[in-house]
Amino acid sequence: MTKTNTGNFFEDFRLGSEIRHATPRTVTQGDIALYTALYGGRFALHSSAEFAAVCGLKPQPVDDLLVFHLVFGKSVPDISLNAVANLGYAEGRFGVPVHAGDTLCAISKVIGLKENANRQTGIVYVRTTGFNQQGETVLEFVRWVMVRKRDPAAEIGPAEVPETAPFLPPGRLVFDSLYFSHYDPVLAGSPHFWEDYSPGERIDHVDGMTIEEAEHMLATRLYQNTAKVHFNQHAEAKGRFGRRLVYGGHIISLARSLSFNGLGNAVKIAAINGGRHVAPCFAGDTLYAWSRIEDVWEIANRPDIGALRVKTFAAKDHPCADFPGDEEAHPQLVLEFDYTVLMPRRF
Amino acid sequence: MTKTNTGNFFEDFRLGSEIRHATPRTVTQGDIALYTALYGGRFALHSSAEFAAVCGLKPQPVDDLLVFHLVFGKSVPDISLNAVANLGYAEGRFGVPVHAGDTLCAISKVIGLKENANRQTGIVYVRTTGFNQQGETVLEFVRWVMVRKRDPAAEIGPAEVPETAPFLPPGRLVFDSLYFSHYDPVLAGSPHFWEDYSPGERIDHVDGMTIEEAEHMLATRLYQNTAKVHFNQHAEAKGRFGRRLVYGGHIISLARSLSFNGLGNAVKIAAINGGRHVAPCFAGDTLYAWSRIEDVWEIANRPDIGALRVKTFAAKDHPCADFPGDEEAHPQLVLEFDYTVLMPRRF
Amino acid sequence: MTKTNTGNFFEDFRLGSEIRHATPRTVTQGDIALYTALYGGRFALHSSAEFAAVCGLKPQPVDDLLVFHLVFGKSVPDISLNAVANLGYAEGRFGVPVHAGDTLCAISKVIGLKENANRQTGIVYVRTTGFNQQGETVLEFVRWVMVRKRDPAAEIGPAEVPETAPFLPPGRLVFDSLYFSHYDPVLAGSPHFWEDYSPGERIDHVDGMTIEEAEHMLATRLYQNTAKVHFNQHAEAKGRFGRRLVYGGHIISLARSLSFNGLGNAVKIAAINGGRHVAPCFAGDTLYAWSRIEDVWEIANRPDIGALRVKTFAAKDHPCADFPGDEEAHPQLVLEFDYTVLMPRRF
User: Fold this and answer.
1) How far apart are CA B183 and CA A42, in angstroms?
2) A238-289 pLDDT, tens per residue?
3) CB of A283 within 8 Å of any CB in chain C?
4) C4, C215, C231 member nearest B261 (Cβ)
5) Residues of A with CB below 8 A from C288's CB?
6) Are A287 and A281 in contact (CB under 8 A)?
7) How far is C61 from chain A (nearest CA, A)?
8) In 3D, which of A27, A4, A106, A20 has the Cα closest to residue C264?
9) Please, are residues C298 and C333 in contact by the beta-carbon 8 Å criterion?
10) Residues of A in contact with B26 (CB under 8 A)
11) Distance (Å, rounded) from C-alpha B333 to C-alpha B335?
12) Which of A92, A138, A173, C208 is in Cβ range 3.0-4.6 Å of A232 for a Cys bridge?
């Protein structure tokens, strides 16, 4: 019997089963620095312990997307080692903040299974939850992924596709202990408050960032994400694209970092409503990003905080100054990311 | 109205105005490790908490140039987002040491403005000061930078060019709490004390280091330096050089790291007297460095510490064993960096 | 007199002399994160402070090979600056665990010298010992390296070649304070306990990892290893291979990281019995690895812990699914690494 883990194939998943993922991970100050070096993030809440303290959090919480990548990474060996494609996300909801010193674990529950017509693959829907060492939820999200069958002839039960909400309602956002009543917009680097944004508004984030092989591999390993397609040029040279694929989450983090220019006070991601990797990215691609404000929500009893639902788009090798009429159809589009941010109000 | 920050153009600067920069930054142990990984520094004061404690500082202070890059990085979005070239530095003076856990902020004062004859650009002179969370100065320096005008026709006031000192006098160096009375040169890795250096002496630092795109981008993002020319190959391909430019500070740090071989006991930079980026650097270039001792200063009432004013030169793709008669005219020269270091005396 | 350190040549070494190495190094949380980013390690003992605490160690010890690289790096400027090749290791024995905050130093004793017949070079054998700030041994090992003579005509004493043991006997392994009685294999990511492995068993680690220039240089600088061949493309272009050589230790760490798939519970390296860099590696190479179980040892009075002597092989650009009959003769072999790991027993 081989001792090598071959990962789960489509027919190995059982509806309703819970999978406890391996490799608990203590987040360190080193992760904070590496995350900054990889993306150049400037959101003040994550950059400064002093700024975070003024917002009610001390020390500074680590970047929300770093939490996402770490929790996602844990699920890879069990869920997507035999994946063909990562299809989508929904119902992402951040819980208690994560600080250096916290240890993260993750569990996934299989909430849907649907074989594809060709019987070669099927779609697995899981709800993945990340916890800290006290058992508090730091993040939960649904994702669905196309997974190969080991044996195309294997019999699969009736399709079960879960309903997911198009977005997390503002009432379900978590922001206990976060206060913007003494928020300093000059230190934060943006004069624009929640009141300044309107539904339908578009923001070009202007700058571009070119991806290098060393960078996306450093990032993906930092997240202990073992998906094969990111690391092995010898094998990928014979694969679909002839090249190593960049982890989709790397693109999300690059787009988020670029979005500082225009959304600098969107210091906290509270929800991931959805996401779609429209096209693969490779080393050498230059990423540009722009955003569209989807919704503007007041928060009950909180005159200091407002929420924005934002859709950030990333395109490769194409600046976004000419907002297309229909973003979703941009020919160079690689990412559509729908999320909810918390922003200070002018009060 | 766009929410994107387009940065200040030459006509936006006002003489005497003070600009409070954004993005306070908590320095972490992760920055220490990344700085080591980027440059391979071996100066014992920054490498070892135990060695630093023997020198009166505990824990180890972070590398002086890391402080420089972080403070410099904060000034970029306000001062040099529309820069054509970073022209020079003067009167750099390090203050209290910075340790992991400190949070750095920065302010710049506009101390000079001079339009260029072509009216397309002008030179902005600023004095930038970095502070820690207690408001103590960690570093101040003057820099001047050529900035584009938004509108070449804009009327500009009379030229004002500040006087800057050619070097910081030894009496103004800061080294409270630094003691070399129990300095161990074997652990430090160099047998050469302050007494061993003479004005005019030249030191070849021998080794060469090749620059990679991923490295200079990781470094520059770590410093939250957003200057566009370092990151966007898609745009730079059509630019002046066809390639991404390496942040000049990356070259300074590489040269400093190479200088360990010959200046291993120059553990503390106390002043940056001047600096000039003679030519641009690109990924693939190999940096070599050599130094010339400019001055040798005793420090009043401190038998344990001496100061050296050093000029370190970096050249690309050219070993420095054949010291040119006139360093400043070396055809491959990319950097001239004039600074003052503190060194243990043999007592 | 030049102040540049030219390193020791073969004729500079004296049998029995002890060399105290420079550059004490405080290990930080940043090193932990960078090590994860460089290799993607998933061994739970090093990934999680909570998991380590359950094993009797808190906080998590840093990766054993990181300790090896740091101690090795210290010895380079004195031992192998003028090396032609790093020939082998023996009698490596890990001592007390290393945690973030510890400061490491190293000493080497010259235990053998043997001039080569051509009189151009000779083999230097050293026993290198790494200590923490309390003077406790964290690691000792023997290595031998071929070093150039400065002057081929220099007279050398009679050859002295030390005997080294083929492996460290299990009775000499150090594992005080390590307990596997509450070990959780699901969190660790592997269902295979010590009892499941048999001598002669082979394990294909399946995955491949491609090496980038930026990565191996970041790693080697992180270890403050200054060997010239890793960093200088300008000089290496004219050298033996036309390219920068990857530090051999980088290959060891990559192979160890790949070995998680099949040896996931081998969370602690206790000994390095031997190692051989069979062929050089370069950026662009893709590493694959497989292992052969050499020995299976019970540990007296410890029903929770067992030891395995493992030989891990790394090959470049060749998957290892077809285990060769004779691993040591694999045409693409780059590394043979013989070491002893501690693993939980099923009790």
Assistant:
1) 39
2) 998 999 999 999 999 999 999 999 999 999 999 999 999 999 999 999 999 9
3) no
4) C4
5) 234
6) yes
7) 12
8) A4
9) no
10) 47-50, 59-60
11) 6
12) C208
- Closest residue of chain A to C49, computed from CA coordinates: A26
Answer whether B232 touches A (CB < 8 Å).
yes
Rounded to whole angstroms, the Cα distance separating C262 from C266 reads 9
Q: Do residue C210 and residue A231 have CB atoms under 8 angstroms apart?
A: yes
| Positive/negative CA dihedral, C319, C324, C328, C331 | negative
| Cβ contacts of B33 on chain C, cutoff 8 Å | 28-31, 33-34, 222
Would you state the structure tokens that stand for residue B155, as one six-digit string?
């009327």
Tokens of B182: 């129990």
CA distance B252 to chain A (A): 18
Reported in sequence order, the residue ranges of B253-304 that DSSP labels E, i.e. its strands, are: 268-277, 286-298
Place of tokens 């080193």: A30
Distance from CA of C287 to the nearest CA of A (A): 8
- Which residues on chain A are in Cβ contact (under 8 Å) with C31? 30
C23/B34 CB distance under 8 A: no
Give the torsion sign (CA, B17, B228, B3, A69). Answer: negative
- CB contact under 8 Å between C59 and A217, yes or no, is no
Q: Which residues of C touch B48 (CB under 8 A)?
A: 23-26, 103
Which H/E stretch holds residue A66?
A: helix A64-79
- Residue C6's beta-bridge partner residues? none
What end-to-end distance do the CA atoms of chain A give, in Å?
66
Positive or negative: CA dihedral C175, C179, C180, C181: positive
Cβ contact (<8 Å) for B196 and C3? yes
pTM: 0.97
Task: Please name the residues between 309 and 338 in chain A that touch chain B, using a CB distance below 8 Å.
Answer: 317, 319
Interface of B with A in 193-212 (CB under 8 A): 212
Quick one: closest CA in C to B260, which residue?
C4
> Tokens 């649907």 correspond to what residue?
A114
Nearest chain B residue to A317 by CA: give it. B234
ipTM of the complex: 0.96
If contacts are CB pairs under 8 Å, which of residues 89-118 in chain C contact chain A? 100
| Residues in CB range of C91: below 8 A, 6 or more apart | C127, C140, C141, C142, C164, C165, C168, C273
Look at residues A186, A180, A224 and name the one whose alpha carbon lies nearest to residue A69: A224
Chain C contact for A29 (CB, 8 A cutoff): yes
What are the residue ranges of helices labelled H in A97-232?
185-188, 213-222
Q: How many CB atoms lie within 10 A of CB B116?
A: 16
Quote the tokens at residue B31.
């920055």
The dihedral built from the CA positions of residue C277, C280, C284 and C285, taken in this order, carries a sign that is negative
Q: Are A205 and B4 within 8 A, CB to CB?
A: yes
Per-residue tokens: C55: 């094993």
Per-residue pLDDT of chain C (347 residues; tens, 9 = 90+): 589 888 999 999 999 999 999 999 999 999 999 999 999 999 999 999 999 999 999 889 999 999 999 999 999 999 999 998 889 999 999 999 999 999 999 999 999 999 999 999 999 999 999 999 999 999 999 999 999 999 999 999 999 999 999 999 999 999 988 999 999 999 999 999 999 999 999 999 999 999 999 999 999 999 999 888 999 999 999 998 999 999 999 999 999 999 999 999 999 999 999 999 999 999 999 999 999 999 999 999 999 999 999 999 999 999 988 776 687 888 899 999 999 999 999 96
Count of C-beta atoms within a 10 Å radius of residue B333: 18
